[in-house]
Every structure is written in structure tokens, then in C-alpha cells.
Design goal:
Blueprint lengths: L22 E2 L17 E3 L5 E4 L8 E6 L4 E5 L9 E6 L4 E4 L14 E6 L8 E13 L3 E14 L4 E19 L14 E12 L2 E4 L2 E5 L2 E2 L12 E6 L3 E4 L1
Antiparallel strand pairs: 1-2, 2-17, 3-7, 4-5, 5-6, 6-7, 8-9, 9-10, 10-11, 11-12, 12-15, 13-14, 14-16, 16-17
């Protein structure tokens, strides 16, 4: 497995297919936050910890979204100084099971940047939950600017509370800078500041996917500007459902 370089702000990687603890590839060993340059041979299911509550009223968490069959709420559990936090609340006859979708996942997003959708993947019981997320970070200044945009997806079986898949689908990074001999703010207005060096860097990569007929189709990671002219998916990798994994065909 190839460990990819990180930027000076500690961004995680340049290639996207990643699944902390959720990907198992033959002859490949996952350690920490490595990202795979090729799709794995298998995608291991993840069984998250769950907590039961009889009612959501006592939690005093904000409901951001909901989806039916079975009923699932997205709760914003963030408090001051805790960073982004959210929960999925799954309705049962007696109450709710609470699940942290970010548990053992690279996903990191504000609850307001999470979308819920129903999809038919395993053709059993209720439809599966497709959770998509986005994350934005960065700043701009008089002599530099850095911005990052990440996105990803998770595929859940809510009947049995299993996360089938979890990976990043988009990575965009921009950085430009100009270094001066002295701070232009300290020079006389009529003086031309002396530039020592300047530069920029840009990265953008993505994975496209489709979910249909008990199959998960993943494209090979490619640069955003290498997309096929007709918008079709290229270099598709097909995964099929097995007992405890998705297996690459």
C-alpha cells in the first residue's frame, strides 16, 4: 500500500478511497489514516456501538433531518468546543437506538452538511440509508490563502444497524502564497514591496459511484478534470454483497 504525502496543514491524503477500519484488501494492511491508490478487494462491514433511549425528549438535541421506513433522525449533538458531532436515532417499538455515524470513520462534517437518502441495495427489508457529507475548511489573508473541500458517503443497513461502506468521494485543495522581504504593512505607501517568492498548488480528485441491483459500482480515483466527456463512469469496479463484506467481482 502506498502512503501518500500530506500538506503543511496536515491534510490527510491526495487519493480518495479510504475507509478507516472498513477496507480490507488482500496483501494490503491498513494502518492509521492510509489511503488506497486502488480499490480494495473487499469492503468489510462495520457494526457500530449503539445506545438505547426510550425518548429523544430528554436528550435536548436538535433534529436536523429525518427519513422514514424505518424512521431515522439525524441529531446535531455538537456543543461549544466539542467539534462536529451528530447521531443517528433509529426508531424501535420501545424507543430509539442511537448510533454515531462517524465512529471509526474518516467522515467529519457539520450536521448541516449531511444529507440522508433511501436507496435499494440489498433488496431485503427496508431500503438502505445513503448518508452523504461535505466538509469545508480554510482561510484567506493578505499574503496567502488555503482552502479544502472534502466529501464522502456511507451506506447503511438500518434494519440490522450495519454500515456496509464508508469512503471519501471528493478532495479539493487550493493554496497560494506570496512572501515579502518585509511586511508591506510596515513600508511607506509609495514603496514597492520586494517579493521574495510566491507560488500556488492545487489538487482535486474524486471517485464516482452507483448503487443498483445489489451492486456498488466505484470508479477508479481520478483527477477532477479527467472526467469523461459524456459524463459516464470510467474504470468501474463492481462490488457485490456477501455475508460480512462487499466483494470485488
Amino acid at each position: 500500500m502506498v502512503k501518500l504525502a500530506t500538506s503543511w496543514i496536515g491534510r490527510k491524503a491526495l487519493i480518495l478511497l479510504a475507509t478507516n477500519f472498513c477496507l480490507l484488501a488482500s496483501a494490503q494492511e491498513i494502518e492509521g489514516e492510509h489511503f488506497l491508490t486502488t480499490p480494495p478487494d473487499t469492503i468489510q462491514f462495520y457494526y457500530p456501538a449503539k445506545t438505547f433511549v426510550s425518548s429523544l425528549d430528554s436528550l435536548q438535541h436538535q433534529i436536523i433531518d429525518s427519513i422514514k421506513n424505518p424512521l431515522c433522525y439525524l441529531l446535531n449533538t455538537r456543543t461549544t468546543g466539542t467539534g462536529y458531532q451528530c447521531l443517528l436515532a433509529l426508531k424501535t417499538k420501545q424507543g430509539f437506538f442511537l448510533v454515531n455515524p462517524f465512529e471509526h470513520s474518516i467522515a467529519y462534517a457539520d450536521a448541516y452538511d449531511i444529507q440522508l437518502e433511501r436507496v435499494d441495495f440489498d433488496s431485503k427489508g427496508n431500503l438502505e440509508l445513503l448518508l452523504t457529507w461535505e466538509f469545508y475548511a480554510g482561510h484567506s489573508g493578505w499574503n496567502n490563502s488555503v482552502h479544502e473541500h472534502d466529501a464522502g458517503m456511507q451506506l447503511w443497513n438500518l434494519d440490522n444497524i450495519i454500515r456496509y461502506a464508508d469512503f471519501q468521494t471528493y478532495y479539493h485543495f487550493e493554496h497560494w502564497w506570496t512572501n515579502y522581504e518585509e511586511d508591506p504593512m510596515d513600508t511607506i505607501a509609495t514603496d514597492e514591496p520586494i517579493v521574495l517568492d510566491s507560488g500556488s498548488e492545487f489538487e482535486c480528485e474524486r471517485i464516482d459511484y452507483q448503487i443498483k441491483n445489489k451492486k456498488l459500482l466505484l470508479s477508479f480515483p481520478y483527477r477532477c478534470y479527467d472526467e469523461a466527456e459524456d459524463g459516464s463512469l470510467t474504470n468501474l469496479n463492481e462490488y457485490r454483497l456477501s455475508k460480512k463484506t462487499l466483494i470485488k467481482k
